[in-house]
Amino acid sequence: MELRKILQERARIIASIRRFFSGRNYLEVETPHLASTPIPERYIELFRTTLLRPDYRTDRVYEDDLYLLPSPEYYLKQLLAAGIGDLFEIAHAFRNYESTSAVHSPEFTMLEWYTVNADSTESLALTVNLLQDLGVSGEPLVLTVSDAFGLYADIDLPACRDRDSLARACGRIGIDVQQTESWEELFQRAFLTRVEPALPAERPVFLTAYPAAISTLARSDGTWAQRWELYLGGIETANCYTEETNPEVIARFLTTEAQHKRQSSLVTHPAPKDFLSPPNRLPECSGVALGVDRLVMHLTGATSISEVISFPLSATMHAQFRNNEE
Amino acid sequence: MAKAGAIEKGMYIMMKGDPYLVAEREFVSPGKGSAFVRCKLKNAKNGSVLKETIKTSENFEEANVYDRSGQYLYGDDSGFHFMDTETYDQFEISPDVLSETGKYLKEGDSYRVIMWESDPIDVVIPMKMVYEVTDAPDAIKGDTVTGATKTVVCETGLSVQVPIFIHTGDKIRVNTETGEYVERVND
After folding, report:
1. With an 8 Å Cβ cutoff, is A265 touching chain B?
2. ipTM for this model
């Protein structure tokens, strides 16, 4: 499709999203892209930038680190805690150190919305309505992660709670298991090798009830998290939680993730202090983050994210960056 | 040793002691997970296909392959027979290894042969090759539907779907990746 057509289609989709949420009394908000203490997430590398503060009395310049946010979650949750109610934002999000692929761009557009007094099941129902409204075809398929492992990987996931039983199950289906691999790594490799490529591409697929062993801010019973991911055309397009609201559990998550980041991240940063703790407690709610570029790809039949972005970073800057590799 | 993030399509890598050709490679990073490369690998010794997902930060070993130039002599039940164009040594490649490529080889032509240790593990063929049609059935009378095709057999035994205007003795260009007819070639 030519660029003009793609941009028209993109504008139509974004206008429909706004209409959809405004018509349901979700407040559209705009929050900053920069923060000094973003939420640490072990697998996400951030862009760090510098705020220059002039001090004219001493003629000095102070430099402070700021980070481009990988999603609007950090500020949206603070607005929810302030009692704003149901809200949504269509924001640019930034993720560093991702390999070039047809579905990744360092700068991309994310739709994120939160529904107060709702859980992930209610968010799923609303998402089905949104997809219908946008003209996404196919009867949605809702499947638990365990069912998907049984169907597509021949692994009885609920029976593989510890690392060794999962390692045996992976070995049995031909995955080359390494001694050093953790439960989570084995889960991801079995998922990416067997499950994800087998998901039906002609209809939206909601994978629900992820293992709680994958560290997130979704509420969990210790075994399974109230979390789902939406696949469109076989591509991961949205992620939803029943949000964890317990301040102690949130604090524990932040500490754990910050520890991981200190050990293995290229860009480390300070974690927020007293995040969502009283008097700024997060109300009971459910949040969904949806990759708008991937949605546009799906609706236009584009095969690469660079086709649906007006100035894809990779195309414009790769040649220029090549010079720095020497 | 290099990191798996450096794996590229067309590369030969070692897995479980065998050399594998990377037939497909894509980067995948789950929203809540680390980055991986998802590969479709073809065992260069027996042609079996393996799907593997490897963490980009994991080490991998590139297979130590080298080239040799081989003239294709003939094929029989035991395999495809070649002659090294420098040493005149004859060697043979099993049909398992050349299951896809074998049918495109033309007797007398020289090809780049990929070697691992002392074994030939693959033959590189051009993406498009020209063949002479040796057996073309006549088009069925009255079959004037646009886009109608028929199956013809070429000099190497290769079968190709072609438009109905192709006759025995014609030369055709074939895409060796897809096996599809490209065009008729006029001398």
Report:
1. no
2. 0.87
